[in-house]
Amino acid sequence: MQEIYSYNNINAMTQKSDIEIAQSTTMVPISSVAREMGLDEELLEPYGKYIAKVSPDAIDEERMRSHHLVLVTAISPTKAGIGKTTVSVGLALGLNAIGKKAVVALREPSLGPCFGLKGGACGGGYAQVLPMEKINLHFTGDFDAITSANNMIAVLLDNYIYQHAADGFRLKTVLWRRVMDVNDRNLRQIITGLGPDSNGIIGESGFDITPASEIMAILCFATSVDDLKRRIGNILLGFDYSDNPFYVRDMHVEGAITALLLDAIKPNLVQTTEGTPAFVHGGPFANIAHGCNSIMATKLALTYGDYAVTEAGFGADLGAEKFYDIKCRKAGFAPDVTVVVVTLQALKMHGGVPYEKIKEPNVAGVANGFWNLDRHVANIRHFGQSIVVAFNLYAGDTAEEIEEVRRHCEEDLHVAFAVNEAFMKGGAGAEALARKVVETINKRPSEPLHMLYDDDKNVEQKIEAVARNIYGAGTISYSRKARRQLLRIQQLGLEHLPVCIAKTQYSFSTDPKAYGPTDGFHLDIADIVINSGAGMIVPIAGNILRMPGLPNVPQAVNIDVVDGRIVGLS
Amino acid sequence: MQEIYSYNNINAMTQKSDIEIAQSTTMVPISSVAREMGLDEELLEPYGKYIAKVSPDAIDEERMRSHHLVLVTAISPTKAGIGKTTVSVGLALGLNAIGKKAVVALREPSLGPCFGLKGGACGGGYAQVLPMEKINLHFTGDFDAITSANNMIAVLLDNYIYQHAADGFRLKTVLWRRVMDVNDRNLRQIITGLGPDSNGIIGESGFDITPASEIMAILCFATSVDDLKRRIGNILLGFDYSDNPFYVRDMHVEGAITALLLDAIKPNLVQTTEGTPAFVHGGPFANIAHGCNSIMATKLALTYGDYAVTEAGFGADLGAEKFYDIKCRKAGFAPDVTVVVVTLQALKMHGGVPYEKIKEPNVAGVANGFWNLDRHVANIRHFGQSIVVAFNLYAGDTAEEIEEVRRHCEEDLHVAFAVNEAFMKGGAGAEALARKVVETINKRPSEPLHMLYDDDKNVEQKIEAVARNIYGAGTISYSRKARRQLLRIQQLGLEHLPVCIAKTQYSFSTDPKAYGPTDGFHLDIADIVINSGAGMIVPIAGNILRMPGLPNVPQAVNIDVVDGRIVGLS
Predict the structure, then answer these.
(1) Contacting residues of A for B265, CB less than 8 Å apart
(2) Which positions bind ATP (chains A, B) (predicted)?
(3) Residue A392 carries which DSSP code?
(4) 3-class secondary-structure state, position A489
(5) Inter-chain residue contact A259 with B561, CB threshold 8 Å
(6) What is the ipTM of this complex?
(7) For the domain that residue A147 is a member of, what is the CATH number?
(8) Best of A150, A158, A199, A553 to mutate (most B CBs within 10 Å, chain B)
(9) Are residues A21 and A104 in the same domain?
(10) B549 within domain boundaries
């Protein structure tokens, strides 16, 4: 524990930004990364020297079975950041450092946060996936293909309505929205088809951000091209005046939409700052969507790594719950252990310390924030998971504060605890964490996964199971719109689907400003989105928006190109 | 001439669709294509085995000077199609077949026409660029990057207005529109920012198709990353209440937008059905934009080919005029010869033969359509260009009709004439055309390029020069909106820029239904778009729309994925 003192000023010591570290790291050709992990080069499609698409044929379900799956989640996020991706990458590096074969599976970044408030999503410091500029911007075009497929459906639907109006075809309700991979608040609610008749039929519409698209979820769940096409055909677009559902397949364009996604469904292979293989594929947000990378990417990580490290977005109330109840249910996964990331700054914010003071030593403030960790630990135990708390070290963290967190974890909560210094030291800084993870898997692995609900419960019961057990909600109400959707779900025979609740990440409740314990709060379901193609029901809790906005000074003003190189991307 | 008879039923003979021919053609690795033409592999960035981005460093201005530039244009298009890309690719194949070193430079296809009325844009039969499925769909992501950059500017602008409203910042006029690479008539005119205050400020907006984006034009004109960034900074977004212009650079985001385009500005290298190198880069339409591939792609073709074959979109009134007056002006190009593509079916349509009857032999009908060819030939001669007419052979064309076209070209117009059979026979079918092109370049090359107007004319004079000399307009009027823009152009000091008139491709006039000669028609300029970043002025003539719509039965319903392969893409 002593040596931690020497890293109290890690940022001051390195004086290097994430992108500077990334650009000064020598990468190995992606073909070598593949060869090293035993992946046949024939199954690779290179996108430049350092990125490749990998054929789903590379998945080996037999090999997967003997390998270990590690889920990385976190306490509730705050504006201080938490570094979940940094820990996920760091843990893979640490596992390699102690002689294990690890592969990491992550989500692809969205341009919205990248140009908005949060910045990129490739980890940080010496625990990043590379080439971070490419991964953060466009990458292999998957998000663009998803955007294009989503909007092509919207266009084909509008055109179908326009061209068939004379035949009496009409939809009473159009459920399909457009998407764009930006934070565009002005597009949340729009009127389309203004101007002369030839501009289509006037209607209300709107855009969500691409990570919220049902096509994104479909891409994450699809197990083959045929499965992808079937799911696209099953997308529900609206209802006619006799309340008959209208699906993509009714327009006979599921094949054309699948054609737009033929490259996008292949997982992307990149490398970490230390050459570890990383599958980065699919990128739904965990608040407004299901929050984890594609099933195929996780399967590839499990095929080629003795340890597959993957993450679920935001806090464990969102990402981890959806990982267990949706992704594991669909793919048959069950993590051997769940890692929960904590930071002192986030604990202090949950303990009521003002943002301006979270960098100051404050043991009491840290302890006041334990309620948040405790709740997440209890929640994860609901699923029968063994837990390792990964303490993500920041500059300025004091030994006394760290000791208080260790004591609480080991003595009060009886969960394993380790400090992660991968940001500063790469794999060498995550050996302790890696050892704790291996030890936990060997000595007290997770029980068989307990889902929160069975398929045969109805949607209200499923919402209730998540809201009461995980969020701590007291009462639950449904808007008239939501009630109508519940009825439709029943009529369409979709009650068996899992629920993916859209909710703010900042609180267990639906109020993003409600810090502190919120047990017994009232949860209102404002709307319910039916993702019949993806195979899930998305209840919208509270005022959560599926299209974010930009902050006063967006990250975009920091990004630049100097001498042909990108700078200021974080 | 005799042997042509045997190809009267070429489609019936082959029984193969474009995509079937494409998929059954064995491609060589793109690294071999590059090596073969003398391009250092270090300058390549592979996107899979058969596509590569090429560094602009590969351009050699010195070598370009001793090589020949061939422009391929056409008579006015009709719904019968014309095959300009097929002839462009075919000519390159033909040049190779007679022992010349040819490289072709083309535009990238847009998803709008690909899923709409027209289908893909990779040529046809045995004269295609490959892999056509990838090139037609997403390709290397250039269009997606352009869409993203364009819309990121829109978002950043809306956010700037929203965040600075309290400081009194306000724009009286917002000129920037969003884009999407689809035919979405419903998005032409929309109201954004509806709902609660947090959804932004209510405003009128709309989407153009991506090929009409100023970012597309900038990508086509940029000579370096720095030049790209400077041009993006110079994009005019609107005017405040004191009529001061507001540019992208006023938001300090030109660097971030450039970062989004760093891969997109590198030209793409692919191959033809016979392994000829093809640079496919940039894709503005020629009716609503300037209609030719990027300057950098043409420079690469000119560096590595003794003959660089490039095309300009739609009829010569649009594409060729813009190629000479805009692209050549900006890049210093001057074609050695211009090839004009004709087909019997198109000539018959221009001759008043009903669409249903254009496949029937009809020498008189063909002759009645000569007025269209004659006008284009006269127009091209305005620029001092030598001309070869390329007769693009279709199934069912009769020797008698072909002879009538040959006679008219050689005896009446005194231009070279050759039949192109590349669709059916590949390079072997374009040898005659290739020989005519080489012969014309050697014996009577074009005069130095005469532009239609000098930089120092004002915008009205430039519009007039094009409208009277090329379109044959009699009178010209300007809407109030256009007049105001003329004044602004003057005030902004942008009078020196060339004009890129947006006009229907179906008629010399602004009426898409006005077949036949339209000399003396009235041309109305409805609006004028200022592309101060790209460096051109875009007058909107008549009712031309910068966002197309889909037809009753779009191509999308024919496209499918069967056993993992795309079918039905044309």
Answers:
(1) none
(2) 78-85
(3) E
(4) helix
(5) yes
(6) 0.94
(7) 3.30.1510.10
(8) A199
(9) yes
(10) no
